[in-house]
């Protein structure tokens, strides 16, 4: 099963899904029409048959049943199946209305079918994934590999696979090429080694092999069952994501130096920012009006505070906040916030800072495109100058993304009153560059809401 398990597992999931789709349909049909059959039962039968064909077609187009060992995770399985189920439901509803059956089919029936189908199919996936991973953990269905190179690379690869035993990769050892011997002698020795150990994969460390040696090892693998995997010396960019692209016949390793891996990912973030900001500004309008009234009545001066901040690529923009300080705050000669004891902060301003409500107008900056909902803290010029002297490389990396209303640094550190706190907040925000995902953004937003509710803003 080792070489064909992905195909068999995909076929298993496909036909189990078809059986569950039909079984759920029939079960819900009997429950819904237990006492009397509907007059349009022929429509239900045709819909069931069309649903089967549609499911097989959508699964093929979306690649729902393409399974690779490294990608066979619970999250990937749930995401692929849920996407297929939603597309299937939407397409089926569209077809029903095109043939003018939309009003004849019970919507409650369709909803119960899809909920039952998704619940049972996901249960099967979770159970089978658990069984397969436990099966591999104890050594079955394992891929065995040998590293052609040095012991250090072997240990690094072994560490990767040992941390994920559910992948089922087992190391048979290291084969070191002896430079004092001829290429043919070493190839013959490796040939005998492969015949004895019978590994599934041969990992060739390119930094330890000459092009001629690599070519001879590949030729050797062509007459054995072993598959070749070329391993570049990636130790110089372990902290970066990398992927291989083929430009003609040339494989190029693209090293990701930016938090977004592609244009689609950045576009998705922008769509989320616009949608989330619009919803907050519409639903939060009563809160906006109350805060505006409170700021106006608490002390003389404007309602909003504007200041020039450094944005993406160092572009200067005006940030909007609710005013939390007295109108003559500049007369105190201070730049950084001094915390709760800052004499410039108004009583209502202290509450706004702790609850983060003073940041609400920045959603207008998000709509304008100057900021994102989640991103590094936008800084005034004096903090920019300070960090450019202290940590220029890290700070310039932060400038590769849009600043945000909230961030890891804003949650963990909050307002910075000195160099040490600024650097600490910067280190926290640096984590965002390597951990970006839409799920991470949502998680940070929820943590920010918790800070607002508990009034723990610093």
From TrEMBL:
Xref: NCBIfam families: EPS_sugtrans
Key words, A-Z: Membrane, Transferase, Transmembrane, Transmembrane helix
GO cellular component: membrane
Entries under InterPro entries matching the protein: Bact_transf, EPS_sugar_tfrase
Topology in the lipid bilayer: Multi-pass membrane protein
Protein name: Putative colanic acid biosynthesis UDP-glucose lipid carrier transferase
Protein family according to the UniProt entry: Belongs to the bacterial sugar transferase family.
Superkingdom field: Bacteria
Subcellular location: Membrane
Transmembrane segments: 12-31, 43-63, 84-102, 108-132, 274-295
Organism of provenance: Rhabdobacter roseus
GO molecular function terms listed in the Swiss-Prot or TrEMBL record: phosphotransferase activity, for other substituted phosphate groups
